[in-house]
């Protein structure tokens, strides 16, 4: 399964590097959100710091949604052939998950400093814990996006169905990510571990369950 | 090679296939006719193991077929309405990916050889997005044949092909069947299919309304059966 996943990931990466159809619009959208937040909230570091984790994670989620939500779109071209190939269909999910993690990581790497700069709020001092929080959030969102993308790729109301499924499903992850980041800014720091565990559990569930059920998901 | 027994498929509240039974032996080429919505594509989706039938059973190469049987999938070649190629890759890269997923040997040489066979060698490093519809269909044909499947399942394969492309397709299907393979061809190209196939089957409202070797089918009988099927055997 891993070998097939690697070849499919190569295919997805080649398509994205040539077309830049996923990352570029999502990054531009995220930067526009950051700029608009910068114009809309003019209160200085003291006022904005309590809101910063929420604004940052919403910005990451919404812009990543543009990339993750469309990542399965390419399979509408030739996805039927992939379903016919003598490979474990979990490989298709794994390759898409890897692509979505990569896209969301790049977006997060661009948007996090941009939000910090435009809102004038310094990033948390606990750099490694903050990076760990970002990674958990990115992996969870990419995993949920890959699962929901697979579920909705063949549906006619995909553009409507995907956000309707993905955003509510990722609300526990958003809650965990915002509260963990708040904890890193000193608000209820003792709860940091619990929020990180919640995010890790979300990541595990949304990676393993779709992987196991992917054969069935593609038949629905 | 293929034995379908009372295949049924229900999608939502719509009964798409209502008990389809037939057999297809090695060396045979079956032309499948039917009106739009008669169930041709749905039948092919079952035979190509993309879906599980609601009821009935399917035997392929002497064993019961299951959707998750990877060894069986390797022995099938499917070309659908859509050529099933990635537009953002070159023709060569498309075949390379296919060869790797099917774990073929000498993938690069095979990819070039297949492109040459369908007349696309000069365009191998061109993005498929720039191909015409006929060129994409040729590439889809190369992909379908590349892993040397024993059973070919073709859904309106002549679509988009020019006359030379159609002749190429016919020749490759004939060679495949002559080499002991079997083919099932769903089509609306009546004359071309009759010149190619050894057997004919007509599907009407999810049921087989006629099936016989072409040699045993008088032209008048066939035209009458087909006329009835196309007249009211599809979407209702």
Q: Can you give a write-up of this model?
A:
The complex is a heterodimer of chains A (220) and B (236). With 220 residues, chain A is mainly alpha-helical. Chain A has one domain. Chain A has helices at residues 2-19, 23-40, 44-48, 52-71, 75-84, 90-119, 127-152, 158-169, 171-184, 192-217. Chain B has 236 residues and is of the alpha/beta class. In chain B, helix 6 (163-178) links the parallel strand 7 (151-155) and strand 8. In chain B, helix 4 packs across helix 5. Chain B is globular and about 45 Å long. In chain B, 47% of the residues are buried. The mean pLDDT of chain B is 89. The A-B interface holds A 4, 7-8, 10-11, 14-15, 18-19, 74, 77-78, 80-88, 215, 219 and B 48-52, 67-68, 70-71, 73-74, 76, 78, 80, 82, 84-89, 93, 97-98, 100-103, 127, 143.
SSE arrangement:
The complex is a heterodimer of chains A (220) and B (236).
Chain A: H1 2-19, H2 23-40, H3 44-48, H4 52-71, H5 75-84, H6 90-119, H7 127-152, H8 158-169, H9 171-184, H10 192-217
Helix pairs in contact in A: 1-6, 2-4, 2-6, 4-6, 4-7, 4-9, 6-7, 6-10, 7-8, 7-9, 7-10, 9-10
Chain B: E1 2-11, E2 14-24, E3 29-34, H1 40-47, E4 55-60, E5 63-64, H2 70-74, E6 76-79, H3 91-101, H4 107-117, H5 133-146, E7 151-155, H6 163-178, E8 182-186, H7 190-196, E9 199-204, E10 207-213, H8 219-232
Parallel strand pairs in B: 3-8, 3-9, 6-7, 7-8
Antiparallel strand pairs in B: 1-2, 1-4, 4-5, 9-10
Helix pairs in contact in B: 3-4, 3-5, 4-5
């Amino acid at each position: 399964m891993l070998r097939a996943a690697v070849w499919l990931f190569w295919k997805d990466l080649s398509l994205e590097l040539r077309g830049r159809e996923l990352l570029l619009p999502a990054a531009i959208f995220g930067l526009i959100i950051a700029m608009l937040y910068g114009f809309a909230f003019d209160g200085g570091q003291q006022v904005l710091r309590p809101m910063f984790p929420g604004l940052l994670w919403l910005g990451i989620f919404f812009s990543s949604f543009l990339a993750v939500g469309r990542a399965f779109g390419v399979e509408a071209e030739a996805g039927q052939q992939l379903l016919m190939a003598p490979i474990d269909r979990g490989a298709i999910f794994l390759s898409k998950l890897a692509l979505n993690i990569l896209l969301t990581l790049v977006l997060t790497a661009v948007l996090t400093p941009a939000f910090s700069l435009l809102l004038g709020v310094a990033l948390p001092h606990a750099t490694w814990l903050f990076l760990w929080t970002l990674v958990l959030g990115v992996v969870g969102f990419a995993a949920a996006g890959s699962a929901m993308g697979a579920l909705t790729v063949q549906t006619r109301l995909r553009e409507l169905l995907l956000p309707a499924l993905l955003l509510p499903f990722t609300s526990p992850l958003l809650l965990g990510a915002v509260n963990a980041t708040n904890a890193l800014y000193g608000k209820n720091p003792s709860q940091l571990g619990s929020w990180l565990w919640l995010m890790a559990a979300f990541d595990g569930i949304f990676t393993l369950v779709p992987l196991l059920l992917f054969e069935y998901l593609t038949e629905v | 090679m293929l034995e379908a027994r009372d295949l049924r498929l229900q999608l939502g509240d719509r009964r798409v296939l209502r008990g389809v039974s037939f057999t297809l032996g090695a060396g045979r080429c079956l032309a499948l006719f039917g009106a739009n919505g008669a169930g041709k594509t749905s039948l092919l989706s079952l035979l190509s193991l993309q879906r599980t039938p609601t009821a009935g059973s399917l035997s392929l190469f002497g064993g019961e077929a299951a959707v998750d049987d990877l060894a069986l999938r390797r022995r099938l070649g499917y070309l659908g309405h859509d050529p099933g190629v990635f537009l953002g890759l070159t023709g060569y890269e498309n075949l390379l990916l296919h060869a790797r997923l099917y774990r073929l040997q000498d993938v690069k040489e095979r990819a070039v050889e297949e492109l040459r066979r369908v007349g696309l060698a000069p365009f191998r490093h061109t993005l498929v997005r720039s191909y015409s519809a006929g060129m994409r269909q040729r590439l889809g044909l190369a992909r379908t044949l590349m892993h040397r499947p024993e059973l070919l399942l073709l859904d309106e394969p002549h679509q988009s092909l020019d006359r030379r492309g159609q002749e190429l397709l016919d020749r490759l299907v004939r060679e495949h069947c002559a080499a002991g393979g079997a083919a099932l061809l769903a089509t609306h190209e009546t004359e071309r299919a009759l010149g190619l196939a050894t057997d004919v089957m007509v599907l009407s409202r999810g049921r087989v309304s006629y099936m016989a070797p072409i040699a045993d089918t008088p032209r008048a009988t066939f035209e009458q059966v087909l006329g009835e099927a196309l007249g009211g055997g599809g979407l209702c």
